[in-house]
Recover the amino acids of this structure.
C-alpha cells in the first residue's frame, strides 16, 4: 500500500505545500487504491474522469507561485446526494440513474475553489433512507473492517471510502445520523454541524428541516479543515446561518494540544445507555468516561426525558417532509421515464415511473409521510411530532444549562451483518436512537472512534454534542479525546483495520 | 356541450339570494421571481426565464424575493389589512405537470396580511364595503399548451408542452370574506370589486394588472340560497361553484350573471348544484364544468422547511404605510374634480373600468375630455364588438397621439376613428397609419373652393335657398363636398367656405 494514501489530509496537505508530493501523485495514488479495493468495498458509484486534470491544474497553479488553500490538491470523495456538474448524481436511486446536474452543490463548489480534487461519488441508501447502505439501488457498500458487515448508513460509501484509504476526506449528509453512525461502525470521524452551519444548496433533500452536510474523515483535525472549507453563510440557502465562524481546524489543534478536558462539564445522557446498547459498545464508552474523569472533567449524569420519543417523532417528520421533497421525481423534466404500454396520461406515466424508479424503503416512507400530513391526521401525527421536537429542544436547553457537552455512544451496536435488520424496519430505525435527537434540535454532533468492542473486534465511537453554534467545542473536545486515546494505544484505531485488496 | 337551462335573471333574484366570494390573484411586476433570480418577464421564448429553482431540479432551494414581500405588504396595507409580524410559507402538495416541484409554495394558516376591507362603488351609486379575509404570497405555476385536441384543453390532447417561464412568478392572492347582500347588483359588484383591486395595484405600481395577460385573475365563487319568509331563519348556504378563466372585467360581470341564472334554473327544477370549478367561455358567454372541488381537497399543507418565517420590522411596515398612494375612493373624487367630468361622464369612465387608461392618456399629454371621448367611445365600441378589454386594444400613448393629431387639425373625428381602427389592426403608430392610409384632412382652401363651386353650380336651387337666408340648406352642399373630399376635410371649414362662396 502506498504511503500517500495512509497520510491524513492534514499530513498530505503539508507534503503538497512543500511540493514533496504533487496533486497528480496524490490523486493517482487514491485512484489506484480505488482500483485495487473498491471491487470489494463498493464505496463508489462513480469514479471521476476529471480528477487527474483538476490535480494537474492545481500543480500548475502551485508551480506558478499562486497562493492556494490549505487543502489544495487533496482528493475528496463526494456523497452521491450532493449534485455535481462533472459526475452523475443519483442519490442512490434508480430514478436518477445517469442524472447530470447543471450546477454544483455549494459545498462542492467551495471544495473545488479551495483546490480539493473530487475523485468520485460515494454510495448511499436510496435518497439517504437507511442505516446500512443496503437500500442503495446500486448494491450495498461493505464495511472495510469486515466485508460481511454493513458500513452504516445512509453515508456508508463515504465512511467506507475514508476507512479503506480510498480517499482522505469525504462529504456526507446527516438527517438522523447518516454521517455519525457510519463513522461509528467504520472507526472514522464524522461531524454533523449545527443546522445552518453548512449550506444545503445542491444536497438532494431528504428532510429539509433535519438535513445537514458535513465532513467524513479519519481524524478530527481533518474534519475541521474540511468544515472550514465548506461552512459559512450561503445566500442560496435561506436556512443557512449568517454567523462568522471560528476555524474548526484551529479548535481541533487547540484540543489536541491543550488541557481542554480539565474542568470541562460533561453530561452523560442517561436515556442513551442500557437496554438495546451492546455490551462492548457500552464498556468502551464507560472506559472513555473514566478517562475523561481522570483528565479532570466533571462528569455528571444528565436526564433528557423526551429523548425516548425522538425516534417516533423523527419517523413522522422525516417521511412527511420526504414525501413532499420526493414529489419532484415525476419524469416530466429530468430523470427516468417509464411509458406504460400504449402511452398513457401524464398521471399514468408519473405513477409508472415512480413505481419502478423508487425502492421499497422510499415508497414506505412516502406512504407514511403522505398519511401523516393528511387532513384529519395532521394534528395527531405531524403536529404532535413537532411538539415532541420542541420538548427535545428543551431537554437540550436544560442539559446545556448544566454542562458544556453531552456524550453518548454514537450508536447502540457495532456494524451488523448484511440482511440482519432488513426485514425489520423498526430494528433498523432504532440504530439511530443516539444520533436522531441532535437533528431534531439542530445541535452539532461528532463521532470519534474510541476502540473496538471486545466481543466482535469492531469499531465503537463516542458521540459528543454541543449547543447550537458551538461546533468548535466539538472539535476541541473530540481532538482531545482522540489524542489521549492514540497516546494510550500508541497508534490510530484505523491502522488496525484489515488490509484490503487482493490485487 | 349541452346548453344550460337559464332562469330569467329577475325571477332568479326573486327566489334566491346570491352569495359571493372572490379570490383575486395579482402577479407582481418584480424584476425577478418569487424564490429565484430568474427574470420575471412576460413574452420571452419558452423556458428561457428559468433557473434550477423554477424547474424544481434536485438540490435547488428557494430564497424569498424581498421586493415581493415589500409589494405584498404595501398591497395588504392598501386593502386595510393588518400585517402579520411573523408569517410563514407552506407547501401545497399536488401533482400537476405545470408545477415543477409538485408542490406550490404558498401561505396557509399564517398569511402576511389579514382582516381588511375595500369600499366598492357600484354604477347605481351604491357603496358596498367588501371585507378582505386575507392576502397571501405564493408562486405561480408554469403554462401548459395542449396540442392535438380540438378544444385546446387537456381532454383529447395528443401531447402537452410545458413552459416554466411563469413558474415562480410572484403572486398575491386576495381572498374576500363571504359577501352577503349584493342582491341584484351581484354582477356589477363583482366587476366593480375587481376593477377597484385593479386600480389599487396599478396605483401602487406593483403589477401590470393586465387581465388579458393573466396579471390579474379572478376566481368567482357563487352560491344561491333560497329566500325564506319574513321572520323565519335564513336558509343554509347553498353549494358554491368557482368560476375561472374570467379574463376581463366585462366577463366577471357576465360570468356571475350567467352562474346565477344557471344555478337558479337547476335549483328551481329540484336539482342540486355540484361543487366544482366552472370554466368561463368568453366566446359563447357560458360556463362549463371543470374539475370537482370539495372542501376536503387534501393538499397536505405543512410549513415550508426551506424558508424562514417572514418577519418584517415595524419600521418597514410604517415606511411602506407612509408611502401608500391615496385610497381609490379619494383618488376618484380627486380625478373627477381635476378632469372636470360630470357625474354621468365620470360614472361612464368608472363603469368602463377606464380610470387607469384615462389617467395614463392624460399623463401622455391628452386633454381629459379627449381621453374620455376616445376611451369610452370608439375604443370601447370596438372592444365590445370583439368581446375584449378596451385596455388590450391600444396603448394610452397611441390614444394621446391621436388626440394630439385632432387637436392640431391634422385629423377630424371621422378620420381619427379610422386611425384608431388602423392602430388596433396593428398597422403601426397613429402617425404611421395617417401616412400609410393617407388620412390627413385637406387643409388646402383652393381644393375645397373648387369642390364647393362645382357643388353649388350643380345645385342652383340650393344656392338660391342659401341666398334667401335658408342657411340650413347648405347641408346638402357640405355633404357633397365632404364626399368629393372622401371625408378628408374639416367639415366646419367647409361650411364656412360654402356660405362665403354662396354669398358670392
Amino acid at each position: 500500500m502506498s504511503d500517500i494514501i495512509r497520510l491524513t489530509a492534514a499530513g498530505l496537505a503539508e507534503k503538497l505545500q512543500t511540493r514533496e508530493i504533487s496533486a497528480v501523485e496524490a490523486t493517482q495514488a487514491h485512484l489506484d487504491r480505488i482500483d485495487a479495493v473498491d471491487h470489494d468495498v463498493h464505496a463508489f458509484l462513480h469514479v471521476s474522469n476529471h480528477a487527474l486534470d483538476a490535480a494537474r491544474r492545481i500543480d500548475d497553479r502551485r508551480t506558478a507561485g499562486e497562493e492556494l488553500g490549505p487543502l489544495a490538491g487533496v482528493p475528496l470523495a463526494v456523497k452521491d446526494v450532493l449534485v455535481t456538474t462533472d459526475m452523475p448524481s443519483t442519490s442512490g436511486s434508480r430514478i436518477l440513474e445517469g442524472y447530470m446536474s447543471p450546477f454544483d452543490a455549494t459545498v462542492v463548489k467551495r471544495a473545488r475553489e479551495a483546490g480539493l480534487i473530487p475523485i468520485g461519488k460515494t454510495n448511499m441508501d436510496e435518497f439517504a433512507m437507511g442505516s446500512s447502505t443496503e437500500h442503495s439501488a446500486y448494491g450495498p457498500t461493505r464495511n472495510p473492517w469486515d466485508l460481511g458487515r454493513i458500513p452504516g448508513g445512509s453515508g456508508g460509501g463515504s465512511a467506507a471510502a475514508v476507512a479503506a484509504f480510498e480517499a482522505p476526506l469525504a462529504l456526507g449528509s446527516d438527517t438522523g445520523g447518516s454521517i455519525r453512525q457510519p463513522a461509528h461502525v467504520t472507526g472514522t470521524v464524522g461531524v454533523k454541524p449545527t443546522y445552518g452551519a453548512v449550506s444545503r444548496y445542491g444536497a438532494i433533500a431528504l428532510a429539509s428541516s433535519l438535513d445537514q452536510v458535513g465532513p467524513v474523515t479519519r481524524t478530527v483535525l481533518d474534519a475541521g479543515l474540511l468544515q472550514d472549507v465548506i461552512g459559512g453563510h450561503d445566500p442560496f440557502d435561506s436556512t443557512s446561518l449568517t454567523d462568522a465562524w471560528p476555524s474548526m481546524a484551529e479548535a481541533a489543534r487547540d484540543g489536541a494540544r491543550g488541557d481542554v478536558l480539565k474542568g470541562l462539564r460533561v453530561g452523560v445522557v442517561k436515556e442513551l445507555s442500557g437496554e438495546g446498547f451492546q455490551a462492548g459498545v457500552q464498556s468502551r464508552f464507560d472506559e472513555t468516561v473514566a478517562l475523561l474523569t481522570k483528565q479532570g472533567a466533571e462528569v455528571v449524569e444528565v436526564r433528557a426525558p423526551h429523548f425516548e420519543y425522538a425516534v417516533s417523532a423523527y419517523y413522522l417528520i422525516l417521511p412527511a417532509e420526504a414525501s413532499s421533497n420526493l414529489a419532484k421525481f415525476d419524469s416530466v423534466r429530468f430523470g427516468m421515464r417509464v411509458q406504460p404500454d400504449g402511452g398513457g396520461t401524464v398521471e399514468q406515466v408519473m405513477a409508472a415511473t415512480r413505481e419502478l424508479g423508487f425502492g421499497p424503503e422510499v415508497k414506505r416512507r412516502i406512504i407514511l409521510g403522505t398519511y401523516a400530513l393528511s387532513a384529519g391526521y395532521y394534528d395527531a401525527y405531524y403536529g404532535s411530532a413537532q411538539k415532541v421536537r420542541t420538548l427535545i429542544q428543551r431537554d437540550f436547553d436544560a442539559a446545556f444549562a448544566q454542562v458544556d457537552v453531552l456524550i453518548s455512544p454514537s450508536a447502540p451496536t457495532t456494524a451488523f451483518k448484511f440482511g440482519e435488520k432488513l426485514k425489520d424496519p423498526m430494528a433498523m430505525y432504532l440504530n439511530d436512537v443516539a444520533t436522531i435527537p441532535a437533528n431534531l434540535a439542530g445541535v452539532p454532533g461528532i463521532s470519534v472512534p474510541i476502540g473496538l468492542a471486545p466481543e466482535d473486534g469492531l469499531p465503537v465511537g463516542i458521540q459528543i454534542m454541543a449547543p447550537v453554534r458551538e461546533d468548535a467545542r466539538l472539535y476541541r473536545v473530540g481532538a482531545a479525546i482522540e489524542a489521549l486515546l492514540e497516546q494510550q494505544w500508541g497508534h490510530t484505531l484505523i491502522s488496525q483495520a484489515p488490509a484490503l485488496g487482493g490485487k | 356541450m349541452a346548453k344550460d337551462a337559464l332562469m330569467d335573471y329577475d325571477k332568479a333574484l326573486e327566489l334566491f339570494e346570491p352569495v359571493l366570494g372572490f379570490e383575486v390573484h395579482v402577479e407582481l411586476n418584480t424584476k425577478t421571481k418569487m424564490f429565484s433570480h430568474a427574470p420575471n418577464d412576460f413574452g420571452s421564448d419558452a423556458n428561457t426565464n428559468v433557473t434550477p429553482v423554477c424547474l424544481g431540479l434536485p438540490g435547488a432551494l428557494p430564497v424569498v424575493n424581498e421586493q415581493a414581500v415589500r409589494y405584498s405588504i404595501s398591497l395588504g396595507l392598501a386593502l386595510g389589512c393588518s400585517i402579520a409580524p411573523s408569517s410563514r410559507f407552506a407547501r401545497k402538495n399536488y401533482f400537476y405537470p405545470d408545477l415543477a416541484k409538485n408542490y406550490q409554495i404558498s401561505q396557509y394558516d399564517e398569511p402576511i396580511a389579514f382582516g381588511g376591507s375595500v369600499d366598492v362603488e357600484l354604477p347605481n351609486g351604491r357603496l358596498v364595503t367588501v371585507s378582505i379575509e386575507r392576502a397571501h404570497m405564493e408562486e405561480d405555476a408554469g403554462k401548459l399548451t395542449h396540442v392535438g385536441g380540438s378544444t385546446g384543453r387537456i381532454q383529447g390532447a395528443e401531447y402537452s408542452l410545458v413552459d416554466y417561464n411563469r413558474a415562480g412568478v410572484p403572486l398575491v392572492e386576495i381572498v374576500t370574506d363571504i359577501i352577503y347582500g349584493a342582491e341584484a347588483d351581484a354582477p356589477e359588484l363583482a366587476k366593480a370589486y375587481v376593477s377597484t383591486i385593479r386600480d389599487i395595484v396599478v396605483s401602487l405600481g406593483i403589477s401590470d394588472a393586465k387581465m388579458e395577460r393573466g396579471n390579474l385573475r379572478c376566481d368567482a365563487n357563487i352560491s344561491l340560497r333560497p329566500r325564506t319568509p319574513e321572520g323565519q331563519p335564513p336558509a343554509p348556504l347553498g353549494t358554491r361553484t368557482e368560476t375561472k378563466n374570467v379574463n376581463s372585467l366585462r366577463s366577471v360581470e357576465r360570468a356571475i350573471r350567467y352562474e346565477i341564472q344557471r344555478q337558479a334554473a337547476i335549483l328551481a327544477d329540484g336539482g342540486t348544484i355540484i361543487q366544482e370549478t366552472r370554466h368561463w367561455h368568453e366566446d359563447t358567454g357560458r360556463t362549463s364544468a371543470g374539475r370537482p372541488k370539495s372542501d376536503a381537497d387534501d393538499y397536505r399543507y405543512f410549513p415550508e422547511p426551506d424558508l424562514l418565517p417572514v418577519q418584517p420590522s415595524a419600521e418597514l411596515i410604517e415606511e411602506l404605510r407612509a408611502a401608500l398612494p391615496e385610497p381609490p375612493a379619494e383618488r376618484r373624487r380627486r380625478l373627477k374634480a381635476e378632469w372636470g367630468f360630470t357625474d354621468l361622464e365620470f360614472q361612464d369612465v368608472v363603469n368602463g373600468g377606464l380610470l387607469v387608461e384615462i389617467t395614463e392618456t392624460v399623463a401622455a399629454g391628452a386633454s381629459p375630455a379627449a381621453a374620455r371621448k376616445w376611451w369610452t367611445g370608439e375604443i370601447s365600441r370596438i372592444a365590445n364588438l370583439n368581446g375584449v378589454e378596451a385596455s388590450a386594444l391600444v396603448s394610452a400613448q397611441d390614444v394621446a397621439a391621436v388626440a394630439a393629431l385632432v387637436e392640431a387639425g391634422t385629423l377630424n373625428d371621422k378620420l381619427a376613428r379610422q386611425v384608431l381602427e388602423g392602430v388596433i389592426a396593428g398597422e403601426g403608430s397613429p402617425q404611421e397609419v395617417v401616412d400609410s392610409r393617407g388620412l390627413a384632412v385637406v387643409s388646402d382652401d383652393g381644393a375645397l373652393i373648387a369642390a364647393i363651386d362645382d357643388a353649388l353650380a350643380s345645385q342652383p336651387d340650393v344656392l338660391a335657398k342659401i341666398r334667401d337666408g335658408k342657411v340650413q340648406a347648405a347641408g346638402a352642399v357640405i355633404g357633397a363636398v365632404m364626399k368629393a373630399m372622401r371625408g378628408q376635410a374639416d367639415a366646419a371649414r367647409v361650411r364656412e367656405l360654402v356660405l362665403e362662396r354662396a354669398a358670392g
Remarks:
- Chain A touches chain B at residues 82-83, 89, 91, 96, 99, 101-103, 105, 200-205, 207-209, 235-239, 320-321, 323-324, 327-328, 330, 332-334, 346-347, 350, 370, 373-375, 378, 382 (CB under 8 Å).
